[in-house]
Amino acid sequence: MALLKFRRKDSEPRTAGPEVRDFLQGYSIEVMPRTAEKVEDFKALLPQGTRVYIAHIEGTPIEDMVATAKRLAADGFPVMPHFPARIIKDKTTLADWIARYQGEAGVDQALMLAGGVTEPHGDFHSSMQLLETGLFDKAGFKRLHVAGHPEGNKDIDPDGSDANVSEALRWKQAFSERTDAQMAIATQFAFEADPIIAWVERLQAEGIALPVHIGIAGPAKLQTLIKFAIACGVGPSLKVLQKRAMDVTKLVLPYEPDDVLAGLAAHKAANPGFGIEQVHFFPLGGIKTCAEYANNRAGTNGAATAAH
């Protein structure tokens, strides 16, 4: 099975088969305040109802995050801001963030994760601690997502296993069974379908029934993709990119995730109970480029209706 497809952009858009089109319905996408500022009109770019995650990078003022959420919500998009535990000082700060998002932008969903910093800024170091505060439940949040790592996470499991990550997911599964909020796992991106399939099937076999929103890296230059993959701690599939980068003729060609999507879509079509519920795009090559790619493959466009 080919892992990646590198090719020059054709003069005509490439269309996807029915399995991929179905698989991509209701996709979500991620932005940051500084990247969102570059988008003139999200309504012309994304299908109506597309869930937009807002990544909270260390150093980004909460005011910028809330302003971005307010803009997207006003355009009719469900907004899911990140709550990175390690950059939240204390429970008072968390309550303030929740109140701002809810009061100014009507936000009622959140992605909770540990965050990409080594040392916590305050009382929290894990998403589980955020959930345990009860603040999201008290505020009436309807949807809570948590992070997943198909290729493991060396920050959490330095020995290269996935013991701690798996234990955390079992805890989150148990938490989901005692909350009214809809929960799901939003994952880090990866570049090969088979290991993702094996990971999702193992979760299901272990009784972790949370639906998976699989992370997919959108179209980007190979150099850009490698930079982000290293920064995000992507696992074995990074070696595939590095090997490709050694071929100068392939280094200059754009990456598009056609093969990994096709592999996942085919498996989902053949196994309707497979745990992947939606695709979540990381627009590493730009929001516009990613949205145009996703819409083309999904057979949708800006102002169309997204499935949920």
Task: Note down, in words, how this protein is organized.
The protein has 13 helices and eleven strands. With 308 residues, it is of the alpha/beta class. The radius of gyration is 19 Å and the shape is globular. It has a single domain, classed as TIM Barrel. α1 crosses α12, α3 runs parallel beside α4 and α9 runs antiparallel to α10. An eight-stranded parallel barrel has the order 2-3-4-5-6-7-8-11, surrounded by four helices. A three-stranded antiparallel β-sheet has the order 1-10-9. Helices cover 40% and strands 17% of the residues.
What would the keywords be for this entry?
308 residues, alpha/beta, TIM Barrel, 8-stranded parallel barrel, 40% helix, 17% strand, oxidoreductase, FAD-linked_oxidoreductase-like, Methylenetetrahydrofolate reductase
The total strand number stands at 11
In the residues, how many domains can be counted?
1
> Average pLDDT, to the nearest integer?
87
Low-confidence stretches: 1-13
What structural class is derived from the secondary structure elements?
A: alpha/beta
Q: In the CATH classification, which architecture applies?
A: Alpha-Beta Barrel
CATH topology: TIM Barrel
Order of helices and strands: EHEHEHEHEHHEHEHEEHHHEHEH
Output the strand order for the largest sheet.
Answer: 2-3-4-5-6-7-8-11
